[in-house]
Amino acid sequence: MNILIVYAHPDPQSLNASLKDYAVRHLQAGGHTVQVSDLYAMEWNAILQADEIPERADHRADILREQEKLRWANTVIFQFPLWWFSMPAIMKGWVERVYTLGFGYGVGEHSDQRWGDRYGEGTLAGKRAMLLVTAGGWESHYSPRGINGAIDELLFPIHHGILFYPGMEVLPPFLLYRTGRMNEALFAEACARLGQRLDTLATTAPIPFRRQNDGDYDIPAMTLKATLAPGAQGFKAHLAQPPSLL
Amino acid sequence: MNILIVYAHPDPQSLNASLKDYAVRHLQAGGHTVQVSDLYAMEWNAILQADEIPERADHRADILREQEKLRWANTVIFQFPLWWFSMPAIMKGWVERVYTLGFGYGVGEHSDQRWGDRYGEGTLAGKRAMLLVTAGGWESHYSPRGINGAIDELLFPIHHGILFYPGMEVLPPFLLYRTGRMNEALFAEACARLGQRLDTLATTAPIPFRRQNDGDYDIPAMTLKATLAPGAQGFKAHLAQPPSLL
């Protein structure tokens, strides 16, 4: 497979850098072709400017290169440390600039009957995506009743709104907590667990998000039909099967 | 009151710019003192670098200026267009760089009995915060069963994880949808509604997030005590009163 790793960490001596290097080696040893967009090393321009906004967009070379990598990839891994409960700004700015009108959104027919190809359809349909996220806090802090908010809900805007939106299937995330207490044994354990996930990228069942255009939503209100999961509200309503964690 | 508006939109001709200008004029006419951090106009450096990470931090002048504005303010308004279901990268990078160790996090005693001053306590305790968010989509798309995800849940990582975390009380957001169909009458309507919210910044009831150190959470697991809201999971578990929208 062709695998793209979009990677954001400023420190080449970091745990994230070691995990990224491990992932590249492991995937290459498995016969895959890997490209890495190392956003800090590339000095990625993360700031969407007014003259790049939709109708005025004059796509720049850096954006076109990233779009080409996305088209090339079968699977895309987004790797980052959880900063303030989301992705680092440099990666958010990658999304904002690379997901241009006609590529990341505004794809397909828009009418009273159809609100474009998105949420399961779009430019990146047929590809798979997975988050690889590290956090300093404990796993319990991100558990269903943990004070930071349940990790599944914290990642929903990325999983559903950034990965599923332009059509990718979204695999359950690879999560590593308590990064501050890392040592050699724990790192080896993390690599073993990550290796298993990398070996099963093609076969792991994706998160069962409901597809926009398969009949589950009223259009143009874009609300879940009253007959489906009656009473369900919030993020979990957009899962076709009962969630295990939400 | 002293009011800080942290503002992110690249286009000075935009709806967001007009709303920001209205807010400044309205607040000043009401006798308030207003400062605006216009992140695009300031060419804010949004990229946290390795040499700014905690222990190595050598706080830069731009960071200190923003921290000083936060200390000065009684109320902080964060204004931005919703891009990919969160704040623009330039504002996320403002949070990452301005919320330094000892200012935005790592405040207060950390032990087995206490996990610092956060979630209701911290450097910004006693202040109020409000989001002012515009979205291109319809309100129904962000309703409790809307395809984009309920807006209360989409904003939770910001409300709870960025505003409440360092101690601010969080007011319900000011939201403006369908920005693409704006006209003079709709703009006047939006300003009237915004004016009401600005006139009641000091009296509006905040979102009733549970405070970390008031006894609701087990420490150090930091999970909601089993006796409280039994069965509740996810974001809504962190509200002390039943949510209206979640």
The CATH superfamily of chain A is Flavodoxin domain
The number of E-state strands of chain A comes to 8
Q: So how many helices of chain A?
A: 5
Low-confidence blocks of residues of chain A = none
Which pair of chains forms the biggest interface, and how many residues does each contribute? A-B, 60 and 60 residues
CATH class of chain A, please? Alpha Beta
Query: Can you tell me the overall shape of chain A?
Result: globular
Q: SSE order of chain A in H/E notation?
A: EHEHEHEHEEHEE
Provide the domain count of chain A: 1
Mean pLDDT of chain A: 94
Radius of gyration of chain A, rounded?
18 Å
User: Beta-strand level of the residues of chain A, as a percent range?
Assistant: 5-15%
CATH fold-type name of chain A: Rossmann fold
Structural class of chain A: alpha/beta
- CATH architectural label of chain A: 3-Layer(aba) Sandwich
How would you describe the oligomerization state of the chains in this entry? homodimer
What composes the largest sheet of chain A? 6 strands, parallel
